[in-house]
Amino acid sequence: MPKWKWFTDYGSSGNRVWIAWDDNFVDVDVVECGTQFIHCHVTIRAPHALIAVTVVYGANEVADRRALWGTLETKATQCVDIPWLVGGDFNAVRDLSEVCGTSGDIQIAMDDFNACIENAGLLPLPMQGEWFTWHNHSATPRNLWKRLDRMMINDRWMARFPSASYSTLTPRTSDHSPMVLNGDRQQRFGGMFRFDNYLAHSPKFIASVQTIWQHNIIGTPMYSVTWKLKALKSVFREQRRNKGGPISQCATG
């Protein structure tokens, strides 16, 4: 049975962010709570892994959100050695493709948000599902859709959980889409890529790599490389079966 624990930010911001977790599987240590975020360390017991998670709820006004952007840039310097996930309602979009409808002049807000993402070294976590995550539900012709909700990661997260992604679901009672983090199957079942050096001498080697590498994979560059390495495993496995001889291995994880 789930053993739920809760943390809410009543003291600092009037109950904008709630965090709930199953105490049977994870330990959560709230490190800092601000008016637009909760930052915590999460220990996943099996497999044992420590990660940092920042849950955000951006303010409505451009000027007020700048405090959040500054916080994320500071947190980035504190999370250089730990996988870090940042997610929630940022109340900002990155470009006009994330807006459908009349929204006024949002260029300054977009510039601020993109500068924060660049300065913090954040990467977009691969996403599937609803593109626009918020709708104003207007009864007038002024319908407005925006992509206000997302998950982002640092490079340590990408290295530790290279196949992780998230889904944006269809909203129900809320005007926002729920987001679900999808676990990393490669990490759970062992994701080391092994390569036998002697295979490079096979006349089929270059052709095999070129065939896999020409695929256009949607996602971050690191995600694309990881997908292609996984696809090459079965190719090299077949070539091993068809060729004997001494083996010299190198491995990357």
UniProtKB/TrEMBL annotation:
InterPro entries: Endo/exonu/phosph_ase_sf, Endo/exonuclease/phosphatase. PANTHER family: BNAC02G09200D PROTEIN, ENDONUCLEASE_EXONUCLEASE_PHOSPHATASE DOMAIN-CONTAINING PROTEIN. Residues 10-176 form the Endonuclease/exonuclease/phosphatase domain. Gene3D superfamilies: Endonuclease/exonuclease/phosphatase. This is Uncharacterized protein LOC105180007. One of its GO terms (molecular function) is catalytic activity.
